[in-house]
Amino acid sequence: MEDYSKLTIIIPAKNEEQSIENIVRGFQENLPNVRIIVVDNNSSDKTWALIKQLKGVYPAQELLPGKGSAMKKGLELVQTSYVAFHDADLEYDPADCKKLFEVLLKNSNTMVVGNRSFAKKSSSWFANKLIQILLGIKWKNLDVLNVDILSGTRMAKTQNFKQLSLKTDRK
User: Fold this and answer.
1) 21, 35, 40, 108: which has the highest count of C-beta atoms within 10 A?
2) Are 131 and 147 within 8 A, CB to CB?
C-alpha cells in the first residue's frame, strides 16, 4: 500500500456545491492519509460554506478570479513532496489518482497527467487533437492511445511545480 501522506491534492472549486462533498469523499476513501486542500475561487453558491464544514480538508479561499489563481493559492500551502491538481466537477474519478501516483513514483516522471476516456470524434477528442496540431506537439514513446492535453488532473513532485513560477493574468 502506498503512503499517500506524501501527496497533497489541490482542488480548485468555483460554484461546485453539487459535487464538492463527493469529490472530497472520493479522495478520502481511495487515498488514505492524503492531504486535501480545497480552494474556493469566489463562488456565488454554497461551495465555500460546504468546504469549511468538510472534515479532513484544508480550506482556502482565493478572491482573484480564475482557476490559475486558485491553483497558485493552493500550491502556496503545500507541505508534502508530491502534489496533484484535480478538478472539482467529478469528470475524473479520484480513485484514478492512485494509479497516477504509482506511475509517478515508479518512473520518476516529471509529471503525470490524467486521461479522460473519451470516444474518438467527441468534442474533447477534437479539441485535444486541434491543440496538439496547433502547438506542434508530438507524443513519442508513450503507452497511451489518447493524450488528454486539456486534462483537469496533473501530478508531480511539489518542487517541480513550484519551480515553474506560475503566473496568472490577474496577479
Assistant:
1) 40
2) no
Query: 150, 168, 6, 9: which is closest to 75 by C-alpha?
Result: 9
How far apart are alpha carbons 83 and 155 in whole angstroms? 6
Q: Would you say 56 and 36 are in contact if contact means Cβ atoms under 8 Å apart?
A: yes
Going by the DSSP 8-state scheme, the letter that residue 17 receives in this structure is: T
CA distance 102 to 6: 12
**Residue pLDDT, tens place only, 80-94:** 999 998 988 887 788
Q: How many residues does the chain have?
A: 171
C-alpha cell at 156: 508531480
The pTM of this model reads 0.77
Q: Is the pLDDT of residue 76 over 70?
A: yes
Q: Are strands 111-113 and 153-157 parallel, antiparallel or unpaired?
A: antiparallel
Distances (CA, A) of 145 to 12, 86, 115, 117: 28, 21, 10, 10
Whether 38 and 70 have beta carbons less than 8 Å apart is answered as: no
